[in-house]
Amino acid sequence: MCLKLDPTLIPGLPSPKPKFEIWVFGPRVEGVHLRFGHVARGGLRWSDRREDFRTEVLGLVKAQMVKNAVIVPTGSKGGFIAKQLPDPSDRDAWMAEGIAAYKLFISALLDVTDNRVAGQIVPPPRVVRHDEDDPYLVVAADKGTASFSDIANGVAREYGFWLDDAFASGGSAGYDHKGMGITARGAWESVKRHFREIGHDTQTQDFTVVGVGDMSGDVFGNGMLLSEHIRLVAAFDHRHIFIDPDPEAACSYTERRRLFDLPRSSWADYDTTLISEGGGVFARTAKSIRLTDQIRGALGLADDLESLTPAELMRGVLQAPVDLLWNGGIGTYVKASSESNPQIGDRANDAIRVDGEQLRAQVVGEGGNLGCSQLGRIEAALAGVRINTDAIDNSAGVDTSDHEVNIKILLTGLLRQDDLTLKQRNELLVEMTQDVGLAVLRDNYEQNVLLGNARAQEHQMLGVHRRFMDWLTQRGELDRALEFLPDDATLEERAAQGRGLTSPEFSVLVAYAKLALKADLMESSLPDEAWFHSTLERYFPAPVREGYPDELGKHPLHREIVVNSVANSLINRGGITFVYRAMEETGASSDQVARAFVVARECFGLPSFVDDVEALDNVVPTAAQTASYLEFRRLLDRSVRWFLQNRPSSLDVAAEIERFGPHITATRKRMSELLVGGELVRLERQAQRLQDEGFPRELALRVASLLDTYSCLDIVEIAAETGRDLDEITSMYFAVSEHFEIDSLLFRVAGLSRENRWDALARGAMRDDLYSVLDSLTRSVLEATDSQDDSSTRLERWVQGNSASLERTRNALSGIDSLSDPGLAPLSVALRSLRSIVRAGSATT
Fold first, then answer.
1. What is the pairing mode between strands 120-122 and 115-117?
2. Angle value at C-alpha 290, between 289 and 296, nearest 5 degrees
3. What is the 3-state secondary structure (H, E, C) of 185-225?
4. What's 138-149 look like in SS3?
């Protein structure tokens, strides 16, 4: 029996409620598949929890949703139990029955899934269907089914299912995750970022590590080969405990490489002559393990301890005072002190598990799934440990699989048209392995930059983050308690301590920000607009986009691919709350914000800026890079609001880029020539500070003048409306800005509170009004003076002609400079005084 349900209509089901649930029941197999959207993916698990496998799957799919925020599909997860397994002593018979149950489960899922034939949706035969068209069903490997992808694809072929061998990624004609080392490499991007923040380069400087796993495993093995400077002090798997108290980086790396290449290796295969004095490899079956002085020292154990049980020693490994704790194993090893072991649901590791506050590693890398509970992560982060979540760290695996599926969907269509042979397709997939890997790692890198930026503003932006969580809750998308996000009382306590959200909490919000934006954009016309076809093209590796350009727009998921790419770019560079804040301050819709962001991104050259700043990894302090990213974010904030306010009805992305891009590019390269007086002094001072930290001169000037280039938007508008020369307007604009000290006033406005919505609105309005006054003053001077003179002469004459009103303004503004922290009231007075000059100048004109 197989039923497809809408859980949102079923009262009493635990949260979160998926969009679709398929329930399978039969004499040999029972299972469930939970899917949170029409386009969703996730693994199928061979469960051993006969009584509560739905609870297990529900817990897994919640994490899958967060992990999938970076890819096209949302999260799904399935699990089944084989009900007629023979005695496990007959391993072959036991596995055969498990595979048979798996095939029955796959068949049942396909029995109630629509197919796509010749571009048309075809409902399954002999099925009563009450839902809308729903043909997208993909699966992946999980616990117990790691080698079953070809089996699943075989069933899909028997059904003639349109996805063919894209149904289950990672099969014999798919990307080999272990061979690529992609999951570990993705998580290593998180590790490298954490270490950069503490001034350590993992690729050139030695560092100490403890871990969970062994060298035969994909994530642990690949991870421990990603730097030749790893000094692996200790590790354990389900068989052994390995301890090398004072490892030598070079020779231990070589030995780990040998074990990785040795089929079915274990720590028992490690050459013990290479282990430093006092170390060794110990069986977990031993009753006790004698401690040497070297082991006690390496693990930070008490001097009076003579021996420990294997479980106690493994707890010591987890709590070792090292640089990195690398999890590449299966199980949950870190919880919060407020949690009990039964709450974790991993009885096999109850005796080993430690609390987050007990960790002494500086950094945790979660290559494996569920290595820490979320509360355990938060507790560790509050104690100073640098840690994200497993969903952030090891997302490269699902990201690779998603690229594989989307590429195969396109190429399978060509196969059916006889435009490509299966051999040619498979060769093309192999050819693109490196391209896919680099694209995936790019996602990992950018999400770590995003989290680093968020951590840098954790206290400053706490009020905004609270409002953002409230907004997501009102949309019905976020349950703060379910995601272990702090309540308002906890946030108040953290604010009093000068703290904010932790990196594990930011990791959750990143996912929800992207999921909310993607849901909104899918309902808009944005992915159908011609300009965004280039976004679709960039998603695919060069051999596909160059070899089959006419097929890209026919991809069944072309809209989803565009939306996913736009959402990733916007949130990664704009920040977690970027869309929400723009909507809050302008009343615009999320798709309007996205269009404005893309225009601003292209006009102000964000890609080239990012390339230049990233080139300084491990060259300049990471904090300086973060400050540069945040400065560009301020430029994006202002420019996006400009477009939303000046193009309230519609925004033609291509036309606006063509209109503004060339002038902005030309002007930013001349900024040191255009600024005068105090503004030039400020520019040079900021640029020199960046140069002192290691920035090249050209980049230092670009960072220091980012907000100055924002004015190009008004300058181009003035030119379009007056017909005047751009150079004439540009020169006068900056001369007026310097004379009236607009730069100083904008700096003070930036210091205003944005704790609540009204603060944020008032702050934004004040900034916009200042720019509006600058725009008006520039127009007034241009209209009232002779264009044959230079800007300084024209401004001087205009000032002389309006001396009376200017004197009154100077008197009104004289007291503001003496205020260390002027609030909204004195700045409002200053703004009113400047407006009076505009009126006086207009009257004179």
1. antiparallel
2. 105
3. HHHHHHHHHHHHHCCCCCCCCCEEEEEECCCCCHHHHHHCC
4. CEECCCCCCCCH
The position carrying tokens 């309006």 is 802
Q: Are the beta carbons of 708 and 682 closer than 8 angstroms?
A: no
* Rounded average pLDDT over 104-127: 94
Q: What is the pLDDT of residues 621-665, one digit of tens each?
A: 999 999 999 999 999 999 999 999 998 778 999 999 999 999 999
Token couple for 30: 């029972």
119 Rama sector, left if φ>0, alpha if ψ -120 to 50, beta otherwise: left
Q: What are phi and psi of 44, to 5 degrees?
A: -110, 125
Q: What percent of the chain has pLDDT over 70?
A: 98
pLDDT band with cut points at 50, 70 and 90 for residue 171: confident
**Cα atoms in the 13 Å half-sphere on the side-chain side of 20:** 26
| pLDDT tens string 519-551 | 999 999 999 999 999 999 999 999 999 999 999
Burial of 639 (0-12, 13-18, 19+ CB in 10 A): buried
**At residue 4, does pLDDT exceed 70?**
yes
Residue 754 has pLDDT above 80, yes or no: no
Residue 364's H or E segment, with its range, is strand 363-366
Strands of 324-327's sheet in order across: 280-283, 240-243, 230-236, 207-212, 324-327, 363-366
- Assign 759 a pLDDT band (cuts: 50, 70, 90): confident
19 among known catalytic residues: no
Find the catalytic residue in 62, 77, 192, 408: 77
pLDDT surpasses 70 at 816: no
Task: Compute CA distances 585 → 14, 461, 562, 763, whole Å.
Answer: 36, 15, 26, 10
**Helix (H/G/I), strand (E/B), else coil: 799:** helix
The first and second tokens of residue 435, run together, are 């391209």
272-286 pLDDT per residue, tens: 999 999 999 999 999
As a dihedral over the C-alpha atoms of residue 610, residue 616, residue 620, residue 624, rounded to 10 degrees, the angle is 0
- Return the structure tokens found at 304: 């009076």
Looking from the CA of 655 toward its CB, the CA atoms found within 13 Å total: 6
Q: What is the DSSP string of 91-150?
A: HHHHHHHHHHHHHHHHHHHHHTS-EEETTEEEPPTT----S-------BB--TT-TT-HH
Whether the bond between 16 and the residue before it is cis, its omega within 30 degrees of 0, is yes
What gap in Å lies between CA 253 and CA 270, rounded to an integer?
A: 12
- In this structure, are residues 16 and 59 in contact, taking their beta carbons and an 8 Å threshold? no
- SS3 at position 821: coil
- Contact predicate 738/677, CB 8 Å: yes
